[in-house]
Amino acid sequence: MNIGIFSDVYFPQKNGVSTAIKLYKEEMEKLGHNVFLFVPKYSKNYKRNEKNVFEFPAIKFLFEKEQRIALPISTDIFKIKKLNLDIIHSQDPFSMGILAEFLSRILKIKHVGTHHTMYEYYRNYLPLIIRPTLKQTQKMIKNWCLKLDKVISPTNNIKNLLVSYGVPEEHVVVIPTGIDVNKFNKPIEWNIKEEYNIKPNEKILLFVGRLGPEKNVDFLINVFHKIFQEEKNIKFIIIGDGTERHKLEEIVIEYSLQKNIIFAGAQPREKVIDAYKQADLFIFASYTETQGLVILESMAAGTPVVALGKMGVYDLLNHENAGGIMIRELNENDFAHEILRVLKNEELYNKLSKNAINFVKENYSIEISVQKVLEVYKNLLNK
């Protein structure tokens, strides 16, 4: 098949959507399909070493500098017809998603879309004068879904949410985003204990993600402060960057924890995987995750998880043998108690670690996910 994937997000911007697109592209190409990406151009200085990627002019989003707003104006549009696309797959309802919808109608190509993001929780990035209401955002999501020939939801929880917005249940298929488990079997090259002078007997807590308010990293810092009162041989590494970084660094200074809480900044994917494998525990308190790829990645590395069980994360950790501890609500004492319980109970820790690896391998490998997506494509093309 010739597959066109349209997205307003892709590398070098680091997030779950970028990772998912790259994994799908690589796996589909392994199976002999031709995958063409249509994404924003991030910088004149950034050169891609990747075939079949069409870049569109883009401007920085004024209120979130990492984000780009693609301008669907490019001579590459005239090349699209020659690609003989069999299917179009958009990753969001914005400028590239609008272009995907337009092309699907003009060229009479079936159009699939994946609902990656809980846009309702990101309205705060817009100033009040142009900020849509919650109902307007929900209506926008519903209308986008109805224009698609099929909607892919990463979890049942998200599917139920879309149905509550008015999207027909039969219009949505649940396919979790997969993980390339083989990448977690490679030898470690980035030694984080050496990099940050962490002693052999010190435990490492890890967070990976964008430093935005919806990720609740300030809550995790408060939890770490509680843990530190009882356990001194412990470090908290925060990988990622974003608008909240300065505020978070100030909280760390107020707690006098600069030696124990490390801001590692954004890191290449290879280094992030190495960090997962060396951490003792992954902690996460975001309430906006459609799936929580970082949860799956941590478990693929055999690192147990303590996380807030909301939205997509609930669908992962609600399983008995998932390899993680789910906290029902944002409660600092509950989080601190469970983190310490796992770290101090070697038998429990080893059980969670083993379960985590098996859970991801059996349920969330990229091979399984891609086969399910391709089945959606084939069913639409046979109609």
UniProtKB/TrEMBL annotation:
Residues 15-182 form the Glycosyltransferase subfamily 4-like N-terminal domain. It comes from the Bacteria. Keywords: Transferase. InterPro entries: Glyco_trans_1, Glyco_trans_4-like_N, Glycosyltransferase_grp1. The lineage of its organism: Bacteria, Thermotogati, Thermotogota, Thermotogae, Thermotogales. This is Glycosyltransferase involved in cell wall biosynthesis. It holds the Pfam family Glyco_transf_4. Gene3D superfamilies: Glycogen Phosphorylase B. PANTHER family: SULFOQUINOVOSYL TRANSFERASE SQD2. Residues 190-358 form the Glycosyl transferase family domain. GO terms for molecular function: glycosyltransferase activity. It comes from Thermosipho japonicus.
